[in-house]
Amino acid sequence: MVANKAFIYKAVPHGWPVPGQDLAVETSEFDLDAAPPKGGVTTKNFYAAFDPSQRGRMRDPKIWSYSPAMEVGKPVLSVSVIGKVLKSDNSNFKEGSIIMLPYGTESYSAIPESDLKSAVLLDPPKGLPLTAYLGALGMTGMTAYGSLMEIGQPKKGETIWVSGAAGAVGQM
Could you tell me which CATH number the domain at 2-124 has? Predict the structure, then answer.
């Protein structure tokens, strides 16, 4: 057994989240000797992205939105968690590989097969830090690039103005 530190969503906040009341860091035990879930993997997580969109998921699940609400009592959902596969029961994700997926913010995870559908294998070139996949090479960077190139379709001689006030994507 190892300590599994997690950032837990405790309650739906009313206004600013209150530390210890709405969000808290808690530690539980994690069995590294246990087999991974059927078709799933066990990971040691290194990094988790925190994004303004997470606040919108901190709501009553009865309130509809484009993304599901977080579950009270579970780790805070991150749009990008990067971890190393320690054990695998899935041929797409070998032991030792580095993956990124939307998941809970905790030190270790037992990830079922159904949650691996959005997982991406990472194989960064030498010298590129894994944290680059949380920004410029992650969701915000790829959204900025795709929006600029596919929607904006810039042409030589044009001037483009992007405001950092547009948020994380605008800053990328």
Answer: 3.90.180.10
